[in-house]
Amino acid sequence: MKIAVATRFLNRAGGIETYLESVLSALSARGHDLSVWHEFPLASGDESFVPASIFTHALGADPMRGRPDVVFLHGLSDPTLEARLAGAAPLVIFLHAYDGTCVSGTKTHSLPAPHACSRALGPGCLVRYFPLRCGGWSPLTMVRSYGRQRERQALLRSCAAVTTLSEHMRREAVAQGVEAERVVHLPAFALPVPARLAPDTRTVRERHLVFAGRMESLKGGHVFLEALDLLEPGLRRSLRVTFAGDGRKRAAWEQQATRVSRGEIDVQFVGWLSPPERSALLASAHLLVVPSIWPEPLGLVGLEAAAAGVPAVAFDVGGIPEWLIDGVTGRLVPTSGTSLAGALAHGIEDALSDPARLHAWGAAARTRSCERTLGAHIDALESVLFRAAGQPAPVAEPGKTALHA
């Protein structure tokens, strides 16, 4: 089957690219004819996540190059271009985030405090936009964003299928008017990585905390840093903290880290890491901290950490509770209190208070991760793509569980 994968970037910019890096190789290995249609060119010095064997094509005047059997769309910045792709072939949309479901795309109200929005996109959003601080202060930006998101909402309702990585996002798509039978929750997966070595449960002199992801306000890195400032002094002096990733808030967070560390906490910012480097980082971690204050569609980094046997502390938002089981694979932190930083600090202190329990959480996370396989994900994805293209799915050979094209 000819599959055109449409996405914004060729470089590793976040979770979408992390996902596609694994899926492209797996689909190619099953014999599919793949091409990647990208919206933005690869910046000088950046490395592409696309295997060299897969053809890449810059979207522009001719988005229909190659006449694919199906287009697998991962969100572009221009909804008009997305609509044009629907004319190239049957369209399967992967709903990574809240495109087509929210004016600002964040699904978060800022007033009186950051909290998730449960409304379907519609005229009522314009009434609430400024009072609840759903975005900025420009009426023109609000109207333009609303129009673009309504276009995306219409595309969701008319495309061949919508896929998600969480039940949370499947419900979100259905709430926007997409027929439930066209929305498929694909099983999430985590690639196997070396497990973290078991800590000495008698005495742990250093605890390594890790943040990994885009450095944007809603990812909550500033809340994590505020929480570090609230930890009891003895614990602070035993911490090493690594921020992996990049984004618009990196410089501000680095300055904040200098203030809150006070020479007691070793805080390092290491930028984006390659998959082997991320695996090595997680192998040295005691605890993953996911301080997102918006409703994370899933939080792929949590699955990566779980595969390495690393438990997590995270706010109880979005799709995170689908992989972080409170008291089993880590600690879920409520967002209902007056201080997010205080709640997160309490969650970190609780998680680190019992090294044996922390290790048990990591072991449970790894065990559950082994059940989330890339093969199962590709099986389900192939079924959706074949159905959208109007082609029969090939029958697996005896003794094989995966479909082969």
CATH architecture of the largest domain: 3-Layer(aba) Sandwich
What is the topology, as strand order, of the major beta sheet?
3-2-1-4-5-8-9
Q: Strand tally, please?
A: 15
Question: What string gives the helices and strands in order?
Answer: EHEEEHEEEHHEHEEHHEHEHEHEEHHH
Largest beta-sheet details: 7 strands, parallel
Helix content: 25-40%
Average pLDDT, rounded to a whole number, is 91
Beta content comes to 15-25%
State the end-to-end CA separation.
Answer: 7 Å
Report the uncertain regions.
Answer: 401-405
Helix count equals 13
How many independent structural domains?
Answer: 2
CATH superfamily of the largest domain: Glycogen Phosphorylase B
Please name the CATH topology of the largest domain: Rossmann fold
Indicate the CATH class of the largest domain: Alpha Beta
By helix and strand content, what is the structural category? Answer: alpha/beta
Description:
With 405 residues, the chain is of the alpha/beta class. The strands form 3 sheets. Strands 3-2-1-4-5-8-9 form a 7-stranded parallel sheet, sandwiched between helices. Strands 12-11-10-13-14-15 form a 6-stranded parallel sheet, with helices on both faces. Strand 6 (108-109) and strand 7 form a beta hairpin. It is built from 13 helices and 15 strands. The protein has helices at residues 15-29, 79-85, 124-128, 139-158, 167-175, 221-230, 233-236, 250-261, 275-283, 300-307, 340-352, 355-369, 374-389, and strands at 2-7, 33-38, 55-58, 70-73, 91-94, 108-109, 115-116, 161-164, 183-185, 207-212, 239-244, 266-271, 287-290, 312-315, 330-333. The longest helix is centred in the middle third of the chain and has 20 residues, at 139-158. It has 2 domains: 2-190 and 374-389, Glycogen Phosphorylase B (Rossmann fold, 3-Layer(aba) Sandwich), CATH 3.40.50; 207-369, 3-Layer(aba) Sandwich (Rossmann fold).
